[in-house]
């Protein structure tokens, strides 16, 4: 049989990996060897090596949403740590036209900290670069000098604090703002589709690939060019609220099939059967 090619998309927390695992198991019962791939896996592989993660930590970056939410990177030292409680509100508005951050505290870090998103850092980079006479791109520490911090009672400009970014946002910063912007949008598409394991999988009979993180228009175009069936995952309740450049393009995609990821087992099983029929054109 011609190798099966499936690409899933949907907002963070919609259950793309969960649905993918069930699809892989169901197709295996029909003699198909389906292998999971993700464009972001190559990004995470690079980030994990930069951060010095061990094999257990690397495994968690692929499998655990909790890991991606609670692990934060120190932008000055590139060391990682866990927050006991993820801050929901990390910014405040001042009388100036730029983002202002609050100093926060967490017992696991033991020192005050400020949280940045990838978008925050990119905006600071633009400010830092526009302030210079030359065209040299400022580094992260130089960018942070252009931020404004809110100092609550008990803190002052002399206060030493960590500059943190969540693991998820750090992956977005490295993969999108750094590599895609500087090397070209298709850098991670090419990296995955030129991978030896990927090529071996799509050239075997009774095999297939399922991509679990279709996010960008150029990824969508690459999947269309290579004969993928595009499946949108819709969930009755999202488990995560994420707002970054990697989650802004879903409205531009035209799915071939919409999978309603219900918590009700009977509904979920019915959706799975319909999805399998769609994959086999039945």
Question: What are the defining features of this structure?
Answer:
single chain; 282 residues; alpha/beta; Rossmann fold; 5-stranded parallel β-sheet; 4-stranded mixed β-sheet; 11 helices; 18% strand
Can you characterise this structure?
The chain has 282 residues and is of the alpha/beta class. It has 2 domains: 4-32 and 206-279, P-loop containing nucleotide triphosphate hydrolases (Rossmann fold); 44-183, no CATH class. 41% of the residues lie in helices and 18% in strands. The protein has helices spanning 16-29, 39-51, 55-63, 65-70, 118-130, 140-144, 167-183, 187-193, 196-202, 217-225, 265-279, and strands at 4-9, 33-37, 71-74, 80-82, 91-92, 100-102, 113-116, 148-150, 162-166, 207-211, 229-235, 257-261. The strands form 3 sheets. The chain has a 5-stranded parallel sheet with strand order 2-10-1-11-12, with helices on both faces. It has a 4-stranded mixed sheet with strand order 4-3-9-7. Strands 5-6-8 form a 3-stranded mixed sheet, with no helix packed on it. A hairpin with a 5-residue loop joins strand 3 and strand 4. Helix 2 (39-51) runs antiparallel to helix 3, helix 2 crosses helix 7 (167-183) and helix 5 (118-130) crosses helix 7 (167-183). The longest helix has 17 residues, at 167-183. The two termini are 15 Å apart. 29% of the residues are buried. The model has no long low-confidence stretch (mean pLDDT 85).
Distance between the termini: 15 Å
> Mean of the pLDDT scores?
85
How does the helix and strand content classify structurally?
alpha/beta
Question: Proportion of β residues?
Answer: 15-25%
Low-confidence runs = none
How many beta strands in the DSSP annotation? Answer: 12
Q: Given the structure, what is the number of helices?
A: 11
Major beta sheet summary: 5 strands, parallel
Quaternary assembly: single chain
Shape: elongated
Q: Provide the spatial order of strands within the biggest beta sheet.
A: 2-10-1-11-12
The tally of structural domains comes to: 2
How much helix, percentage-wise, in residues? 40-55%
Topology pattern, helix = H, strand = E: EHEHHHEEEEEHHEEHHHEHEEH
Radius of gyration: 21 Å
